[in-house]
Amino acid sequence: APADALGRRVLCGTERATVRYVGSVPPTAGIWLGVEWDDPQRGKHDGTYEGTQYFKCRHPRGGSFIRPNKANFGVDFLTAIKDRYGLNVEQDVQHGTEDTLVFGKKTVEFVGMDSIAEQQRQVQLNQLVDISVRECAVSHAGQKEEISRTCANIRHINLSKNLISSWETVTAIASQVQNLETLNISENKMKFPSTSTSVSSVFSKLRILALNQTEITWTEVLLCAPGWPALEELYLTSNNITVLERPDNVLQTLKLLDLSDNQLLDGNQLHLIAHLPRLEQLILRNTGISSIHFPDAGFGCKTKMFPSLKGLAINDNKISQWSSINELDKLPSLRSLQCHNNPLMDTEKNPETLRQLIIAKISQLEILNKSEILPAERKGAELDYRKIFGNDWLAAGGNWNPEKNKPSEEFLAAHPRYPSLCLKYGAPEEGELKGRQPLTLKNQLLTLTIKCPEKPEQKPVEKKLPESMTIQRVKGLLYRLLKIPGSELKLSYESSKLEGKEVELDNDLKPLQFYSIENGDCVLVRW
């Protein structure tokens, strides 16, 4: 076994493990390695043999003893590169004696061929910019300065799923790569510094760092972070991080942070990272959060937290209350939201209705669940929201008279955007808020005027259409009515409530009711 075997990562067949013990195990002879397997199903015990505990395991059956010759302790970084990129052996020709080459069955003399081949390999290695040695059993840096001498142009390295056991090894490799910009060392279980270390320039140009499944803690992230002065993207998924701490004078250049698959203690943990000045993307998939709250801002106000945050992913969490969606409207820069697979999504049977409610509640949102929000969709969502909750607004103290309009705190807490929607579109009229009649076909019919503004010779036609009729079917009807190919039609509508404004009916798959068309409105037809 190597002298530094204790704590090293090893490969045994296809299984990975960490060496927890090196020594004898009486009554057997010779040296044994006590290993803790990554997959506890591979083990036999917890490090105890015949009553003596030689090492400890997290899992009661996660340990085994193996002979050193069964353990692969890995290779150095440069050897892995040469193996991966076919630069260790000649693939097309075989070397014969020192001054000959064997081509098939012919032997040809070629004085100095070895040095030429070595020079060619050297040139090829020097041309490598983006290197992946994933799953190549890399465990150490190798000889000092050998990497910088051989691979001077490397900028991007994928070292994921290897046998790296400490951050020191990563530093030893990176110190020989002058212009390192991207580094992925995910799926390496390793030790990180437990105390602050002296800041070096090793990672001075590093912009992207992936530390997924490395068992790093947030405290260790902050201890290493002074060495990442230019870092823009940090990936920390699946590390059992539960609590966060405020980053003081570190990670100030960070634009993207991925904490997915870490079960955070609660949503308040987010407040501790809320003042990263340049953070634009925050990914929190499956983090166990059940609520989001920005206590520094009241109804209709913007928070000082996450000042630059444009994109937020909170998929696969436990958010069940609309209050958390209301809170997201406080984020001053939010443009994109992903929120699939939360209990809140089950509160509405119709996913389209759910989408409209979220759009109406978050004023600056441009993309929801990776789907763009077009201006017509936003307008329809906001008008519907204003109408749906109009009676609640009146009952809570809302009034068409501005002097008497004093909705309750409870209403404003549930619908913080309602006052701004009334300012934007006007308070809902009394006729809009009358109780809906039973949904018979007769009550679902809309009486609409059909006009062709560019064809004055075409007289306006009045038609009764079901509000559930899709724009595509409306075009088909107009084709028969006006004798025009439906694919060439462009539809829009005017309403007395939206004087001077014309709303495009631009999605063939949407029903009329999606655009909030009402009785008496005028559909404009162009071609």
Automatic annotation (TrEMBL):
<keyword id="KW-0206">Cytoskeleton</keyword>
<keyword id="KW-0677">Repeat</keyword>
<dbReference type="GO" id="GO:0005856">
    <property type="term" value="C:cytoskeleton"/>
</dbReference>
<dbReference type="Pfam" id="PF14580">
    <property type="entry name" value="LRR_9"/>
</dbReference>
<comment type="function">
    <text>Tubulin-folding protein; involved in the second step of the tubulin folding pathway and in the regulation of tubulin heterodimer dissociation. Required for correct organization of microtubule cytoskeleton and mitotic splindle, and maintenance of the neuronal microtubule network.</text>
</comment>
<comment type="subunit">
    <text>Supercomplex made of cofactors A to E. Cofactors A and D function by capturing and stabilizing tubulin in a quasi-native conformation. Cofactor E binds to the cofactor D-tubulin complex; interaction with cofactor C then causes the release of tubulin polypeptides that are committed to the native state. Cofactors B and E can form a heterodimer which binds to alpha-tubulin and enhances their ability to dissociate tubulin heterodimers. Interacts with TBCD.</text>
</comment>
<feature type="domain" description="CAP-Gly">
    <location>
        <begin position="23"/>
        <end position="67"/>
    </location>
</feature>
<dbReference type="Pfam" id="PF01302">
    <property type="entry name" value="CAP_GLY"/>
</dbReference>
<keyword id="KW-0963">Cytoplasm</keyword>
<keyword id="KW-0143">Chaperone</keyword>
<dbReference type="InterPro" id="IPR000938">
    <property type="entry name" value="CAP-Gly_domain"/>
</dbReference>
<dbReference type="InterPro" id="IPR044079">
    <property type="entry name" value="Ubl_TBCE"/>
</dbReference>
<dbReference type="InterPro" id="IPR000626">
    <property type="entry name" value="Ubiquitin-like_dom"/>
</dbReference>
<dbReference type="Pfam" id="PF14560">
    <property type="entry name" value="Ubiquitin_2"/>
</dbReference>
<dbReference type="InterPro" id="IPR032675">
    <property type="entry name" value="LRR_dom_sf"/>
</dbReference>
<dbReference type="InterPro" id="IPR029071">
    <property type="entry name" value="Ubiquitin-like_domsf"/>
</dbReference>
<comment type="similarity">
    <text>Belongs to the TBCE family.</text>
</comment>
<keyword id="KW-0007">Acetylation</keyword>
<dbReference type="GO" id="GO:0007010">
    <property type="term" value="P:cytoskeleton organization"/>
</dbReference>
<feature type="domain" description="Ubiquitin-like">
    <location>
        <begin position="446"/>
        <end position="525"/>
    </location>
</feature>
<keyword id="KW-0433">Leucine-rich repeat</keyword>
<keyword id="KW-0597">Phosphoprotein</keyword>
<protein>
    <recommendedName>
        <fullName>Tubulin-specific chaperone E</fullName>
    </recommendedName>
</protein>
<dbReference type="InterPro" id="IPR036859">
    <property type="entry name" value="CAP-Gly_dom_sf"/>
</dbReference>
